[in-house]
Amino acid sequence: MVEGGVTKADKTEFTECWKTTWKTPYIMKLALSAGIGGLLFGYDTGVISGALLYIRDDFQEVDRKTWLQETIVSTAVAGAIIGAAFGGWINDRFGRKLSILVADVLFFVGAIVMALAPAPWMIIIGRIFVGLGVGMASMTAPLYISEASPARIRGALVSTNGLLITGGQFLSYLINLAFTHAPGTWRWMLGVAGIPAVVQFVLMLSLPESPRWLYRQNKVEEARSILERIYPADEVEDELNALKESVEAEKADEHAIGDSLLEKVRGALSNAVVRRGLYAGVTVQVAQQFSGINTVMYYSPTIVQFAGFASNKTAMALSLITSGLNAVGSIISMTLVDRYGRRRLMIVSMFGIITCLVVLSIVFFQAASHSPKINQFESTHFAINATCPSYLSAPNPASWNCMSCLKAECGFCANGANEYSPGACLALTTDLKGSCREQHRTWFKDGCPSRFGFLAVILLGFYIISYSPGMGTVPWIVNSEIYPLRYRGIGGGMAAVANWVSNLIVSETFLTLTKALGSAGTFLLFAAVCVIGLICIYWFVPETKGLPFEEVEEMLKVGYKPKAFRTRSKGDTGNA
Q: Residues in domain Major facilitator superfamily (MFS) profile (predicted)?
C-alpha cells in the first residue's frame, strides 16, 4: 500500500532482532503494541472496499450517486492529511504515547459512528474520524517503535509496522467476507475496527513514553529507566550518551533552519541540495499514487464487479488475491531492495505496472465490446414500464448490448438459460432487481457478463506483484535517504503530504472517471500517467543504495543526471 514508511533491514538485522527480542520480550511488547496502529491503519483503509458494496444496497442514494461513493471512500484520506499534520504537533508537544492514545480514541469513535450510522452523512463523519486516526498512526507508530528500539534491530522492528499495515488490509478483506451473510453486514465490517483500538489503548496505558522524547523534555532519569529495560546494563550509559549527542545535534539543526514551519519550508526550498532531493522524493511519492494502487485497494471488489462478477461475496473473495499479494510483496521488497537497489527496483516495477494497466485496459475494452446483446422480448415481458426508458427511446435499439444498458444507468437482467446470451435491459429499481432474481437470473448494474472476467482478476494480481515490491515500499525508503540530515524531517513531511494529496485525488475521481471514460479508458489513462512517472523517476531519482548520507548530499550538490546523459569524466563511475 500505500501509505506509511518502511525502514530497510537486511537478513542479519532480522536474525539479530529475533535473538534480542527472545532475550528481552519487553522490546517486542513495545513494538507490537505500537504496531497495532499500523494494523488499524491498514484495516480502516481496506475495509471500505467491501463495505461500500453493502452500503450501496442499503442506501439507494449512495448507489445512484457516484460522487457520494467517492466521498465515503476519500474522506478518510482527507482526514489523514489533517491527522498527520496535527499528529506531528501532538508528537512534539505532548509525546508519542499520548498521540497513539488520541489516535485510538479517534479510531474507536469513528468505528462506532459508522456502525450505527442511520444515513450516509453519518458514515462520512465516521470516516473523517477514522482518517484523523490513520494520519496520526501513520507517522506516530513507526516513530515510537524507532525511538523505543535498540539501534541494531531498529530497521527490522520498524519494518514490522509496514507488514502490519498490509496485514491489516488483508484482514479487512477476510472480515468483509466473514460478515457477508450477517445481519447488518457493513455495520459489522466497519464497527469491528473499534476492538483493536480498545486493545491498543489499554496496552499503551501500561507502556512508557519514548525515551528520546523524554530526554528532549529534560526528563533524563525517566529516559534512563526505560533504556535500562531495553538494553543490557553495560550498554545503558553508552546509549544515554549517544542519545544526548543526537538530541543536541537535532536541536542545533532546528535552530539553524528555524523554529516555525514556514521558516523550515522556506529554508528547504531555498537550498539547492534539498530542492533536488525533493524533486526525487516528491516524484516517487506522486508516481506511487498515480500508478492507481488505491483504486485497487479502495475499490477492488467494485473493479471485480466491473469485470462481470455480480455477486458481492464473489467480488470480495476474488479481491482477497490482490490484498494477499500486496502483503507478500512487502516481504519480498525487504529481500530485494538492498540487493538490486532502489532506482532499478522502481523502474522495473513501473514497467510491470504500465504493462498490466495497458493489458487490463484491452481486456475491459474487449469485455465491453463482446457483452451480451439486449433482447427486446426479454426486456418487455417483466412488467408494464419495466423496460429501460433510454432503450425504448433509442434511435437504434438493435445495436444495444449490456454495456449500453449500464451506461444509460439501467440494469441488465441476464438470460436465464445462459448469461452470455441476449438479456433484458430494465429500469434500475429495487423491485425489478428482485423480480430478476426471483426468476433465478443474475442482476448486473456495474459490469456485464464476460468470458474475459477471469483475465481481469489475473491481471490485477500481476499488477500487485509488479507494484508491491517496488513502488509499494521503495518511495518511503528513498525519502528516508535523499535529504540532508537537518532537512530530513521537513523534506520527508513535504513528500508525504504530496503522497496523501495524490491519494485523495485518485480515490475521489476513480468512479467518476470510469463513468466518463469506461473501465478501459480509465486504466489506459493511469498507464499514460505511469509513463510520465517512469520518465520522471529515470531523470530525477538517483540510486542511494549503500551510500552514506554525505555522499548523497555531494551527489545532489552537483545535480543528478542519468548515466546515459552525463558528460563522462575521468574516474566517473556514477550510478546507473
A: 30-545
Residue 507 has pLDDT above 60, yes or no: yes
The CA-based diameter of the chain, rounded to the nearest angstrom, is 87
266-370+450-576 matches 12-207 in CATH topology: yes
What would the mean pLDDT of 183-211 be, rounded to a whole number? Answer: 92
Contact in structure between 34 and 145 (CB atoms under 8 Å): yes
> Are the C-beta atoms of residues 115 and 187 closer than 8 Å to each other?
yes
Q: Give the per-residue pLDDT at 333.
A: 65
Q: For the chain, give every domain's residue range.
A: 12-207, 208-257, 266-370+450-576, 371-444
| Rounded Cα gap, residues 118 and 99, in angstroms | 30
Predicted pLDDT of residue 576: 46
Name the grid cell of 405: 444498458
Q: Residue 114: name the closest of 186, 169, 42 by CA.
A: 186
pLDDT at position 334 is 63
In this prediction, residue 17 carries a pLDDT of 66
Residues whose CB falls within 8 Å of the CB of residue 530, separated by 6 or more in sequence, listed in order: 287, 290, 291, 292, 350, 353, 354, 357
294 HSE (CA, 13 A, CB side) = 28
The answer, yes or no, to whether residue 564 has pLDDT greater than 70, is: no
Indicate the pTM of the whole model.
0.79
Please tell me whether residue 413 adopts helix, strand or coil conformation: strand
Residue 475 pLDDT more than 50?
Answer: yes
- E-strand ranges in 439-502 read 443-444
Give CA–CA dist 120/56, Å, rounded: 10
Copy the grid coordinates of residue 566: 552525463
Class of domain 266-370+450-576: mainly alpha
Looking at the domain 12-207, which fold is it? Growth Hormone; Chain: A; (1.20.1250)
Q: Residue 141 CB: number of other CB atoms within 10 A?
A: 31
Cell triple for residue 43? Answer: 484495516
